[in-house]
Amino acid sequence: MQLSYKSCKVAENINLSEDIYKLKVEGDYDIKAGQFFMIKSLNEEPILPRPISVHDFEEGYVSFLYQKKGRGTSIMAKLNVNDEIKLTGPLGNGFDAENIKGKIAVVAGGIGIAPMLYTVKSLKNCDIDLYVGFKDEVYEVDEFKKFVSNIYIATESGKYGYKGYVTDIFSPFEYNAVLCCGPEVMMEKVVKVCRDYATPIFVSMEKHMACGIGACLGCTCETKDGNKRVCKDGPVFYGRDVFINA
Predict the structure, then answer these.
(1) Where does [2Fe-2S] cluster bind (predicted)?
(2) Mean pLDDT across the stretch 57-72?
């Protein structure tokens, strides 16, 4: 099975912080919170597309928050309004937003905040707190203010909020469920403390992907039921089922 790519026009591509960009493209899709797209430029190189999670979705436009790190994302960062790119999706399972209820904690680290905006917008009848950690500069947090009750920020440099790690200020004690995305070392700590408190936790895993449909087996992660494909079986897993070995 091969992916079918659709050419889309860029509506916006702005630099929010150092190496952090928000790309908005035209298109109507049926998207679940936590899903992702495979994105590639019209240039021949790089051949492989890049998996980017959905940051937000409004009628006629889908947005992606991404970090410029390698060749693919460096090409993306140079896109201008009305340029064309190829994308396919949405892919993956996403968060089961319809069945997540009660008081919810969303815990994100750095670019792990990317899938969480559309996620909190998709949760209904929930009281949501956002915990987010950054190294130094804070970005995109203001977009969450209309959808969450409280925002708790930690920065390693101490420039904003608590000086330290977001895991230092988070406890799952009062929450009915926790949604988490970020560096594996952070998610490992969050999963452990949630297990200690018997709090349900859902994690969005990030892996390098080549195909996006589970054919190449290049993005496997270890679970209690054996190896699973992050692109096809995830990217969202029950925290109690997945082994995160940071």
Answers:
(1) 211, 216, 219, 231
(2) 90
CA neighbours closer than 13 Å in the CB half-sphere of residue 174: 5
What pLDDT is recorded for position 1? 42
CATH superfamily membership of 6-91: Translation factors (2.40.30.10)
Task: With a cut of 70, say whether residue 207 has pLDDT above it.
Answer: no
Q: Considering the chain, what percentage of its residues have pLDDT values greater than 90?
A: 58
| Residues that constitute the known binding site for FAD | 50-53, 65-67, 72-73
Q: How far, in whole angstroms, is CA 29 from its chain's centroid?
A: 18
Domain boundaries, the chain: 6-91
pLDDT (0 to 100) of residue 123: 95
Going by the annotation, the residues of the binding site are 50-53, 65-67, 72-73, 211, 216, 219, 231
Q: State the Cα–Cα distance between residues 133 and 12, nearest whole angstrom.
A: 26
**Residues annotated within a binding site for [2Fe-2S] cluster:** 211, 216, 219, 231
